[in-house]
From TrEMBL, chain A:
Keyword Transcription regulation: yes
Known role: Component of the Mediator complex, a coactivator involved in the regulated transcription of nearly all RNA polymerase II-dependent genes. Mediator functions as a bridge to convey information from gene-specific regulatory proteins to the basal RNA polymerase II transcription machinery. Mediator is recruited to promoters by direct interactions with regulatory proteins and serves as a scaffold for the assembly of a functional preinitiation complex with RNA polymerase II and the general transcription factors.
Main location: nucleus
Protein name: Mediator of RNA polymerase II transcription subunit 17
Species of provenance: Pleurodeles waltl
Subcellular location: Nucleus
InterPro entries: Mediator_Med17
Lineage: Eukaryota, Metazoa, Chordata, Craniata, Vertebrata
GO cellular component terms, semicolon-separated: core mediator complex; mediator complex
Keyword annotations of the record: Activator, Nucleus, Transcription, Transcription regulation
Pfam families given in the database record: Med17
The keyword Transferase appears for this protein: no
Region annotation Disordered: where it falls in the sequence: 53-80
UniProtKB/TrEMBL annotation, chain B:
Name of the protein described by the UniProt record: Mediator of RNA polymerase II transcription subunit 18
Cellular compartments annotated: Nucleus
Species, as recorded: Pleurodeles waltl
Job description of the protein: Component of the Mediator complex, a coactivator involved in the regulated transcription of nearly all RNA polymerase II-dependent genes. Mediator functions as a bridge to convey information from gene-specific regulatory proteins to the basal RNA polymerase II transcription machinery. Mediator is recruited to promoters by direct interactions with regulatory proteins and serves as a scaffold for the assembly of a functional preinitiation complex with RNA polymerase II and the general transcription factors.
GO cellular component annotations of the record: core mediator complex; mediator complex
Biological processes per GO annotation: regulation of transcription by RNA polymerase II; termination of RNA polymerase II transcription
Cited Gene3D superfamilies: Hypothetical Protein Pfu-838710-001
UniProtKB/TrEMBL annotation, chain C:
The keyword Nucleus belongs to this UniProt entry's keyword annotation: yes
Organism name: Pleurodeles waltl (Iberian ribbed newt)
Primary subcellular site in the record, as a coarse category: nucleus
Localization per record: Nucleus
One GO CC term, this protein: mediator complex
Entries under PANTHER family matching the protein: MEDIATOR OF RNA POLYMERASE II TRANSCRIPTION SUBUNIT 20, UBIQUITIN SPECIFIC PROTEASE HOMOLOG 49
Subunit-level organization: Component of the Mediator complex.
Keywords: Activator, Nucleus, Transcription, Transcription regulation
InterPro entries on file: Mediator_Med20
Role played: Component of the Mediator complex, a coactivator involved in the regulated transcription of nearly all RNA polymerase II-dependent genes. Mediator functions as a bridge to convey information from gene-specific regulatory proteins to the basal RNA polymerase II transcription machinery. Mediator is recruited to promoters by direct interactions with regulatory proteins and serves as a scaffold for the assembly of a functional preinitiation complex with RNA polymerase II and the general transcription factors.
Sample GO molecular function, one term: transcription coactivator activity
Gene Ontology terms: biological process: regulation of transcription by RNA polymerase II
Sequence similarity: Belongs to the Mediator complex subunit 20 family.
Protein's name according to its UniProt entry: Mediator of RNA polymerase II transcription subunit 20
């Protein structure tokens, strides 16, 4: 009855068309009837049909729209329906009467309220305490009903809001879960994971790559949930976090250095903490990948160090290797020490003041650190590949070559070659020796080159070299005469313990690691070079070589090497130049004049004849340092030119 | 690497050291008996089988569980030789050669009777002698008086987990005796074997093997199968 | 290991085995050969146990199991005029398992022990062949390491052997006869030793006891 003109909801007829309702019609046509209701049952049924709300609804509506349709219009209908009821609805009569009277009362009340509301004909004034109680009723009623409806509405709103927040939280939770799962999937692609109980454990050790290091290297995957949802989510937030073992936290590196003097034993092992400034860690936890990689690096460094210290203790060397705390010290060459230290800074130590030590950071041999890493990986690989699957499959596991040893009757040398493996420490010491030797060779050559201007010394280092061997080509030349004086070309093959010098003519000289040996050798070569240069120059100038000796047996004894000497004559044969050059004594140049030119030669009674004038006279030393010219060969060229008469 | 493995390796290397030392340093001439070899090795064995269609999932599982080595497949030709004595059961030797790696030595294997022992042991235990030999093994066995009983080709996958060897293979019958060119599968399933060869009296191994077998449980059921009862 | 020749050095007239060995080694040392420790080759004899029923043909056939210090991880099993199996040391364990079928006649165990010399590319092993406690003869093994083809180095080897064995240098060993151009294998050395040891055993058994 919500709108005007709508039919009443229930149409009540007094008699049913059929006395008895047919419940079902049998196949034979017989009808089964529903037993007619008795009085009280019928009453109950009809009472159910009464729509109490119809009346009140109309009332409400009427109250809601006072200017609306008039009240009487609906009443007759109601009246009509109820009147028809009357005879059969005897027991409900009192109810009807009461309802009806209540309706009348309400209608009156309604009218009164309407009138009061208009305030044209009637006003309500507050009265004294003992005033009529019914007068106060309506505002209270209104208030209560308003409150009720408001609470109802708010209830619904609250419910909706709750559902909304729930669904938002749910989607976020879902998203987070999905993120966690996708992160886990990504983690799974790079790291070995397994589920133990309700935990997810991962393996960051190098065991699957062949490492035999006993550290378990397990990390735990945790869900990063301790995040305040009120705050803004940080950009680098990751729902997945990893918990790494405490001893693998922080960062580590291996420091390899070669030092001249051994420091006091007392403070060994404590030096070499972090001196390079730590990268400022970003606020917030780093990503799991970086975390794991750092931990893995720490583990690898630890493994390398453990392996090295084990070898250091096991290997017997003439000078025993020392292992103190985080440092291994070995003596590759006398007076020289190689130290390998494990520098591990865990997070809590991060803020400690870096120890002030001047000596070391720059002598860190990064190459050797790198090579250590490479060596341990080689070692891992060896572990893996040494135990290949047996063939045939029934055969026991083991080294493939070992299995061949029996049936192929390997002899003792073959078997021992199977056994032999050089340790990490030995290899790195060898490499260190080589690096040291190479550096010192370079330094020796450089210092000679800068100290001695004439002749010049050039070194051409090969770019590519082995870890145990490198080579340098040393050329000794004179400035301006590079094309004609190419006599000394040395190939220095620098090994681990010694330097092999190969001359251009194929002679091989082996020098030890002592610096002095190489220096002396180069000095003697330089001295020889001058004499060789004179020889070459003579060829160009048309002079003739009379005698040449690399190793002169006469004259003062040189402390290093031997003096070399050459004598050349001018094309006409009038003049002769004799040069003696020693690594220590330097050069001495003499010129021999023809006899005729020598004025102060005492006249001899025997040599009267003119022809004797063509004999050579005595030698005179040239004051070499007073000669013009910027280097020895240039001076020599000038001298030769001066002694060659123009013709 | 497990302890037993390490032990075994250590043993082997010390033995070699002993040999080398012996020959290099010239000890007294009548020092030691020459016969060598590792005496009293035992094979611990669990067996099971999977149908062809579930092979892939088993292999997948094994790849996850086993050591990270290059995955191995194999194709072997096995010949079983019998030597009949006057009385008692014949002496059985198995000669195996790798068909895919023909340069590897032949493998001659003696397997003893399964140890009865206690029922609580989880794996079949039997004596075993593994010998690597030159490739004229067959000729030699015939010369010794052995007769070829049967032969087959085994083809499959091999895994390793510590000292444990896991083989998953199919058995093929040779259509022409002695010729591995034409072979025929014997069944629609793969045989799965988990075995460890270790010195006698290390029953911890069988425990370890059972734990491993548990991990393969839904895919394959590995049991200790007494070959005598099957026959 | 390269081509190897194993031969017997007769005991010098009026000298003991030990003295003859000394003469030989002194000659080698004078040549400039370097002493390099000791060596041994041993040979155990197995015979089939109490004639198995179906194997009448096999009866009397002897199987030899040999070891050599040169290949300490190997074990050689061979038959006279038959195949030679090279196996690892576990073969000895197998022979223990097989003792119901093959019996080791301990009395027939024969071995050669002595000194190993190196002279440039040659390995020379002078051994005293002994059965039990008594020395029965001298074995000389010459190994020319760089070569595995018999024909390529046989003449050189003969020449070298003549330098210290004089007229006792051997002729071409029988195992070489079908090996002229093929690759020499360590098994061939063992076959030579087996033949040599058998010969020495028979030599001694003939006049001394005549029984087996």
């Amino acid at each position: 009855m919500s709108g005007p003109g709508s039919a009443p909801a229930v149409r009540i007829s007094i008699e049913s068309a059929c006395e008895k309702q047919v419940q079902e019609v049998g196949l034979d046509g017989s009808e089964t009837y529903v037993q007619p209701l008795d009085m009280s049952q019928n009453l109950a049924r009809l009472a159910q049909r009464i729509d109490f709300s119809t009346g009140s609804g109309g009332e409400d509506e009427a109250g809601g729209s006072p200017s609306g349709r008039d009240w009487g219009a609906s009443e007759p209908e109601d009246e009509e329906g109820l009147v028809k009821f009357q005879p059969s609805l005897w027991p409900w009569d009192s109810v009807r009467n009461n309802v009806r009277s209540a309706l009348t009362e309400m209608c009156v009340l309604y009218d009164v309220l309407n009138i009061v509301k208009d305030k044209r004909y009637m006003t309500l004034d507050p009265v004294s305490q003992d005033g009529l109680p019914p007068k106060q009723n309506p505002p209270i009623l209104q208030f209560v009903s308003k409150k009720k409806s408001l609470t109802g509405a708010s209830h619904i709103l609250l419910k909706g809001a709750e559902r909304l927040t729930k669904s938002v939280a749910e989607t976020q939770e879902n998203k987070r879960q999905r993120d966690f799962n996708s992160e886990l999937l990504r983690l799974r692609q790079h790291w070995k994971l397994r589920k133990v109980g309700d935990k997810i454990l991962g393996d960051l050790s190098y065991r699957s790559a062949g490492s035999l290091f006993p550290h378990h290297g397990t990390f735990e995957v945790i869900k990063n949930t301790d995040l305040d949802w009120d705050k803004k989510i940080p950009d680098d937030y990751c729902p997945l976090d990893v918990q790494i073992p405490s001893d693998l936290e922080g960062s580590a590196y291996l420091k390899v250095s070669i030092q001249k003097q051994s420091p006091d034993i007392g403070d060994l092992g404590t030096i070499n903490l972090f001196k390079r400034p730590l990268p400022k860690s970003k606020p917030g936890a780093p990503h799991w990948q970086t975390k794991l990689e750092a931990a893995q690096n720490v583990l690898l460094c630890k493994e390398i160090f453990a392996q090295l210290s084990r070898e250091a203790v096991q290997i017997k060397s003439q000078i025993p290797h020392i292992v103190v705390k985080n440092q291994i010290i070995s003596q590759p060459f006398p007076g020289l020490q190689l130290s390998i230290s494990l520098c591990h800074s865990s997070n809590d130590k991060k803020y400690q003041k870096p120890t002030l030590e001047k000596s070391s950071t720059e002598d860190h041999l990064y190459v050797l650190e790198h090579n250590l890493h490479q060596l341990i990986r080689e070692f891992h690989k060896q572990n893996l590949s040494s135990s290949v699957m047996p063939h045939p499959a029934s055969a026991p596991f083991g080294h493939k070559r070992m299995r061949l040893a029996g049936p192929q009757a390997f002899d003792r040398s073959e078997i021992t070659s199977l056994q032999q493996t050089e340790g990490l420490l030995e290899k790195i010491i060898k490499q260190a020796k080589h690096i040291f030797l190479r550096r010192r060779t370079a330094r020796t050559i450089d210092s000679l080159a800068s100290r001695i201007e004439d002749p010049q010394i050039q070194a051409h280092w090969s770019n590519i070299n082995d870890v145990y061997e490198s080579s340098v080509k040393v050329l000794i030349t004179s400035q301006g005469y590079e094309q004609i004086c190419k006599s000394i070309q040395l190939q220095l093959n620098i090994g681990v313990e010694q330097i092999r010098v190969v001359h251009r003519d194929g002679r091989v000289i082996i020098l030890s690691h002592q610096e002095q040996e190489l220096q002396d050798f180069l000095l003697s070569q330089m001295s020889q070079h001058q004499v060789h240069a004179v020889q070459q120059l003579a060829k160009v100038m048309g002079w003739q070589v009379l005698s040449f000796s690399n190793h002169v047996g006469l004259g003062p004894v040189e402390s290093i090497g031997n003096a070399s000497a050459i004598t050349v004559t001018s094309p006409s044969g009038d003049y002769a130049i004799s040069v003696r050059n020693g690594p220590e004594s330097g050069s001495k140049v003499m010129v021999q004049f023809p006899r005729c030119q020598v004025k102060d030669l005492p006249k001899s009674d025997v040599l009267q004849d003119v022809k004797w004038n063509y004999l050579r006279g005595p030698f005179k030393e040239v004051q070499w340092n007073k000669m013009e010219g910027h280097n020895f060969v240039y001076k020599m060229e000038l001298l030769m030119a001066a002694l060659t008469p123009c013709s | 690497m497990t302890d037993t493995d390490a032990l075994r390796n250590a043993k082997r290397s010390t033995r070699i050291d002993a040999w080398c030392g012996y020959t290099m340093e010239a000890p007294p001439v009548s020092a030691m008996p020459v016969s060598g070899g590792t005496i009293n090795m035992m094979e611990y064995l669990l067996q099971g089988s999977v149908l062809d269609q579930s092979l892939e999932s088993l292999l997948h599982r094994l790849r996850g569980l086993c050591d990270n080595m290059e995955p191995g497949t194999f194709q072997d030709h096995e010949m079983v030789f019998l030597l009949k004595g006057q009385q008692g059961s014949p002496f059985v030797l198995r000669a195996r050669r790798s068909m895919d790696k023909p340069t590897m030595p032949w493998h001659l294997r003696y397997l003893g009777q399964p140890e009865m022992g206690d029922k609580s042991r989880h794996a079949l235990v039997r004596n075993c002698v593994d010998i690597a030999t030159s490739d004229n093994l067959m000729e030699f066995l015939l010369e010794m008086g052995f007769r070829l009983d049967h032969e087959f080709v085994a083809q499959g996958h091999i895994f390793r987990r510590g000292s444990m060897k896991i083989v998953v293979y199919k058995i093929f019958r040779l259509l022409v005796p002695g010729s591995t060119d034409s072979i025929e599968a014997l069944s629609l399933s793969y045989l799965v074997e988990v075995s460890v060869v270790a010195p006698a009296g290390q029953d911890v191994i069988s425990e370890e093997m059972r734990n491993f077998a548990e991990q393969l449980k839904p895919l394959v059921h590995l049991e200790k199968i007494d070959p005598k009862r099957v026959m | 290991m390269g081509v190897t020749c194993v031969c017997q050095m007769p005991v010098a007239e009026g000298k003991s085995v030990q003295q003859t060995v000394e003469i030989l080694t002194r000659k080698l040392e004078l040549l400039g050969a370097e002493k390099q420790g000791t060596f041994y080759v041993d040979c155990e004899t197995y015979h089939t146990a109490a004639s198995p029923m179906g194997n009448q043909g096999q009866q009397g056939k002897l199987m030899y199991v040999m070891h050599s210090s040169e290949a300490p991880l190997s074990c050689y099993a061979l038959f006279e005029n038959g195949p030679c199996l090279i196996a690892d040391a576990n073969f000895d364990v197998l022979m223990v398992k097989l003792k119901g079928f093959f019996q080791n006649s301990k009395a027939n165990k024969i071995e050669s022990r002595g000194t190993r010399y190196q002279y440039c590319d040659f390995l020379i092993k002078i051994g005293t062949v002994a059965m039990g406690p008594s020395a029965r003869g001298i074995s000389v093994e010459v190994d020319y390491c760089p070569c595995v083809i018999v024909n390529d180095c046989w003449n050189l080897m003969v020449e070298f052997m003549q330098s210290f064995m004089g007229s006792h240098a051997p002729g071409l060993p029988s195992v070489f006869s079908n090996k002229h151009e093929s690759v020499y294998s360590p098994a061939d050395t063992m076959v030579q030793y087996m033949e040599l040891l058998n010969k020495i055993r028979k030599q001694q058994q003939g006049p001394v006891s005549g029984i087996r």
